[in-house]
Amino acid sequence: MRTVRESILDVLRARGITTVFGNPGSTELPMLKRFPEDFRYVLGLQEAVVVGMADGFALASRTTSLVNLHTGPGTGNAMGAVLNARANRTPMVVTAGQQVRAMLTMEALLSNPQATLLPQPAVKWAYEPPRPSDAPAALARAVQIAETPPHGPVFLSLPMDDFDAELTEQEDRAGQAAAARRITHAAAPDAATVAGLADRISRARSAVLVVGDDVDASGAWDAVLALAERTGLPVWAAPVSARVSFPRSHPQFRGDLAPAIGPLGRQLEGHDLVVVIGAPVFRYYPYIPGAHLPEGTELVLLTRDAEEAARAPVGDAVVADLPLTVRALAERLPAAGAPVPAPHEQVRFPEAADGTLTPLAALTAIAQGAPENTLWVNESPSNVPQFHEATRIGTPDSYLFSAGGGLGFGAAAAVGAQLGAPHRPVVCVIGDGSIHYAVQALWTAAAYKVPVTFVVLSNAKYAILHWFAQLEHAQGAPGLDIPGLDVTAVADGYGVRTHRAQGAGELTKLVRDAAAQQDGPVLIDVPVTTELPSL
Question: Which residue has the higher pLDDT, 472 or 51?
């Protein structure tokens, strides 16, 4: 008779999930014993880093990732990263060990008495199988739920004595049958809906497209680009985008919408129809009141997420598969004339008087050294406009940023992304404050020789919080500066090769050399000036 462990491993094999990200504890060892050779275990030194690596891996590889955490304490440590994964819509199965069933009622040490409540509401589904024999089918169901749009993390609590339990032949077959099921998610809108939207666009005096993260995530990049070029409509990026979903050097691209109600509404003045594709309406922060839309402006949202459609404060919505919907819409619309290119003058920021690079000068130097097929991971929140100005990303699957607003994503996600897309160079641009939320990821990168290029923009402060302090009239708030950090010394201690760049030319060469090698991670520390964003 086969065991639950053997059946679970076959469920994972059937779903193509053979990489496990984890930080093991005593309650996880029964799952991991006699670890099979066709599986890969990636160790992280802290649970939030483990989830962050799995996040980047899933997004870069377009697969579902698997996480193994240590009962309640490990799940608790990981919760910030799980919230980021939820916001990123990452297909992820999070498992956590549980005390043996015989001691759950007495709540022995390491029991998680309400295991399914702890990760909520950050996960789409949380479950603890009522019997050992239910574990394989529960795991198969978890994968299906994680992969159902909108994608997201799910959670399974697995008692440690379940894994050696024997299954009957019928029970074993049930788990494998559940794993073999394939569910296709391709809900197309009806022809009347598409025709009605095409008519609204045709009748509009000045329509505009707004594209969001799910364009890139759903594989709708080419369809959206074709729609934009066919119609000649201007294109904006949705506020606080975590992915790039339209070529940023394209003549129809107009930039990023502001993440605040009043300023965003003013940006859309002059347009009578806004067509939003694959983005919430809208991701706002901070609160600056005003009209969501200009007077007389209508909005239509195309989304795969029914909840996203329901919570939008304005406009109509169509819930359907994005590539199918956009292609059908383009076929209904007549071809327009050539679009008028938007004037774009690159803003130039010279080095400061003391030789310190401005963020844009540093990011331009980084972009000049990075290969064309770079997969960028960004966690320098105060320098996002300068990042996009410098990099001008023009291909899909090339940019990752956390949609959740919490720090700790960048360094860990970059390691996972490189493991998930080993054929592409990964460059992680990160602030000296941000990197310390997941600094343990450097050890994993060094231990597994993961060739990520980490570029740390160091200004010895939480610069984005200085901006918020001005905006919220909270000057004098403590804890916004972080002097005395030496990230190269920390990285050296983890076994990472380090450099400190002073000028643009040196920085470009260091990035070029680091991205060209495959012998492990490189960290480049770059002192920069502080430039606060504006709305």
Answer: 51
Averaged pLDDT of the chain: 93
| pLDDT one-digit tens code per residue, 173-192 | 999 999 999 998 888 899 99
Sheet holding 19-22, edge to edge: 40-43, 19-22, 65-69, 92-98, 153-159, 126-127
**What pLDDT is attached to residue 289?**
95
Query: Helix 504-516 crosses helix 359-369 at what angle (to 10 degrees)?
Result: 40
Q: How many whole angstroms from its chain centre is CA 435?
A: 16
pLDDT at 414 over 80: yes
pTM, 2 dp: 0.95
φ/ψ of 92, rounded to 5, equals -150, 135
Residues facing 197 on adjacent strands: none
pLDDT exceeds 80 at position 351? no
Q: Is residue 125 predicted with pLDDT exceeding 70?
A: yes
Instruction: Name the token pair of 124.
Output: 């789409």
Nearest alpha-carbon partner for 524 in 505, 493, 496: 496
What pLDDT is stored for residue 232 in this prediction?
96
- Classify residue 495 as left (phi > 0), alpha (psi -120 to 50) or beta: left
Q: What is the pLDDT of residues 278-290, one digit of tens each?
A: 999 999 998 999 9
Parallel, antiparallel, or unpaired: how do β-strands 273-277 and 207-211 relate?
Answer: parallel
Q: Which residues contact 257 (CB under 8 A, 6 or more apart)?
A: 210, 236, 237, 238, 239, 264, 267, 268, 282
Ramachandran angles phi, psi of 63, nearest 5°: -130, 175
Tokens matching residue 428: 């992680």
pLDDT at 502: 86
Residue 534 has pLDDT above 90, yes or no: no
344: phi then psi, degrees, rounded to nearest 5: -145, 115
Q: At what angle do helices 71-88 and 47-61 cross, to 10 degrees?
A: 30
Size of the chain in residues = 535
CA distance 361 to 529: 10
> What is the signed CA dihedral for 188, 191, 194, 200, rounded to 10 degrees?
-160
Shortest CA distance to 156 belongs to which of 186, 115, 191? 115
What order do you get walking across the sheet with 497-500 strand by strand? 399-400, 375-379, 426-431, 453-458, 522-527, 497-500
State how far the Cα of 451 lies from the Cα of 497, in Å rounded to an integer: 11
Please, what's the b/e burial string for 419-451 (b: 16 or more CB within 10 A of its CB; e: otherwise)? bbbeebbbbbbbbbbbbbbbbbbbbbbbbeebb
